[in-house]
Amino acid sequence: MDRVLDPRPARKKRLIRYGGFTIVAVVLGWLLVSGLGSGRVRVEAAKVQIGMVQEGMFREFIPVTGTVQPIQTVFLDAPEGGTVKQRFVEDGHMVKAGERIIELSNPQLHMDAINREAQLLDQQNNLRNTRLAMDQQTTRLKDELLNLDKDLKRLERDQRIDERLVKDSLMAHNTFLGNTENLHYMREKRKLVAANVRSDSLFRLSQVGSITNNLSLIDQNLAFLRENLQNLVIKAPIDGQLSGLNVELGQTKQRGERIAQIDVLDGFKVRSRIPEHYVSRVSTGLRGTFTHAGKEHVIEVVKVFPEVSNGEFDVDLHFVGETPAEIRRGQTFQVRLQLSEDLTAVMLPRGPFFQDTGGQWVYVVDSEGTAIKRDVKLGRQNPDMYEVLEGLQPGDRVVTSRYAAFNDADELIIQ
Q: What is the pLDDT of residues 41-93, one digit of tens each?
């Protein structure tokens, strides 16, 4: 038997299907209207920052922290180790050059110095005795040569007389030959002694110079030993204020250990640490400014330290013109160190957008409130501004806040 079918379930399915299509169509339409489908994003005006492009004097500078230091500081280290025997001045006092600060006691150093001095004096005496013996040898040879010259003159005179006597047959011929042989012997001996005198003179000339140098070196060593003993008394090398002296009687100080420092308070300098990124940009002669007591002061880089530590390097700066009043050692200033001369340029205020685009493009806001992506080229920068090389003109308004939430859209509709 045929059964009548109820059309309502099929109609219900059709309604659900048509309703789903309708919802999808509405969503797509909303997306098209909102701009997502065409690279457009709606944003609230309160969530974006807008900067104005302007033309003016661009100054490339970096902010650094400067610490005031004395114009000159001399560190005092212990030349020799020892126990603190006496302290003559207190920390913070003004001292004069040559004034005693502390005295160390080192009995072992005294004993070593005495033994070493005895050895040096013994060497000194030996060298002097050697030189005395050489002088005596030279004197003996010269005396022997003088005696030979005297004997030769006498023998030569006798030879002339003997020749006449032999000629007149008044002397035996054998005696004459003996006297002639003796004269010949004395002449040869005189040549030998003369050669010894010349050799001794040359040898003495070289040896005396060496002995003199050795004696001079020994004198220097003796002076150095005595100076080492004097180094146990540490004195001020310059006039200034003593600081960092932290010693107590009986305290042991090692050789080379820092004792104190002396600061010359006739003037001050500023020392700053700069990131190594600028190591090729910073040189002597660069100037910076800082504000103290409501007045701007100028300082100049006078020394760049070559060492880089922890990603930074040090520079010393001196005040140009008037030194700020009532500054103290250790005081810090915020210095704006200028890296280039001032020049007229188109400038864009700094903002976090640079982290998203690298400065290659920006959103430029038109008169209707729409921000359109535009390629730009940025140059130098300082903590406040970017230098604009291409793509922007004075009066342009640019979105300077973060771009990460815009999904790289071509346009922003600012509501």
A: 888 888 889 999 999 888 888 889 999 988 888 899 988 888 989 999 988 88
- The domain limits of the chain are 33-58+343-414, 62-67+262-338, 108-230
Nearest in space to 267 (alpha carbons), one of 209, 192, 327: 327
**Do residues 332 and 65 lie in contact, with contact meaning Cβ atoms separated by under 8 Å?**
yes
Selection from 399, 407, 389, 394 nearest residue 351 by Cα: 399
In 3D space, the residue among 311, 345, 259 whose CA is nearest the CA of residue 78 turns out to be 259
Integer-rounded Cα Rg, in Å, for the chain is 50
pLDDT of 29 over the 50 cut: no
Mean pLDDT across the stretch 222-236? 83
In this structure, is the dihedral angle defined by the CA atoms of residues 44, 49, 52 and 53, taken in order, positive or negative? negative
- CATH homologous superfamily of 62-67+262-338 equals Efflux pump adaptor protein, beta barrel domain (2.40.30.170)
b (16+ CB within 10 A) / e for 28-66: eeeeeeebeeeebbebeeeebebbebeeeebbbbbebeb
Q: Dihedrals φ, ψ of 104, to 5°?
A: -105, 155
Q: What proportion of the chain, given as a percentage, has pLDDT over 70?
A: 91
What sign does the CA torsion over 290, 296, 301, 302 have? negative
Q: What is the pLDDT of residues 344-371, one digit of tens each?
A: 889 999 899 998 888 899 999 988 888 8
